[in-house]
């Protein structure tokens, strides 16, 4: 198992492959339900009715309120967790030794050895860290706080990162003439989210999809680069802009469709809850129907993050400038920055 400081994390869950839009890969997956979590302990005496009421009230308050700052290190993001999320998080943290053992069965020290994910050290024996809490909450939210499903997703992600060799993919050198124009990270929005641009039209005539596995390794490395800009203290998501300028009706090939499918599977399964907003810009009219075709299959929460915008700087700027300052937005999208 490779663990180390380079195991940082670029479809920020939801960056999506550089292909025509299919059903957008999103980071929330409905589950059968969220198990209830019981706290407190049985009383060893028979209280009076008044005492019983007071104890019950105190227990309800304890359930609805996270531990004090002395007990629970906090940051700006953890302070937004709900009572139900805190309850699930505490139980999820207690499962970390068994989770790491399940992920790395060949490691005798798996239950106690720290693991670095997206630049954050997760110590299964000392998990009370606000940045760790933010990352674990992503897996919980992606599975609607279902502990068993969140654990399975986390184990799957840890195993995949090892088998895919994410750390190696980050260090690889990719031909600039093939991959250099496919994705850009430029600027931030007004809330500090980094802005990631996926340039679909740039994939034409570059041979980017000739080797699907090489494309996937570049795509994962790009994803990890964008995640490296998140501090998990105040910012834990990114803005995505998917630009379809130059995409033609017959540009999709069997290789590009297969690359899209495999990339979607990776980002759905291993990069949860990393999307703040997603904008589709310069979408050709012949492709717009695809979005409307799949719209009934997309959850309202996901739709709330997405917007399909027209073409041209003026139209795109009208949609983006309310959330991205003009000097942070390239001129081609209605801003004043030189960009890329």
From TrEMBL:
It is found in: Cytoplasm; Endoplasmic reticulum membrane; Microsome membrane. It is a peripheral membrane protein. InterPro entries: CRAL-TRIO_dom (IPR001251), CRAL-TRIO_dom_sf (IPR036865), CRAL/TRIO_N_dom (IPR011074), CRAL/TRIO_N_dom_sf (IPR036273), Sfh5 (IPR042938). Signal peptide: none annotated. One of its GO terms (molecular function) is metal ion binding. Residues 1-50 are annotated as: Disordered. This is Phosphatidylinositol transfer protein SFH5. It comes from Pisolithus microcarpus 441.
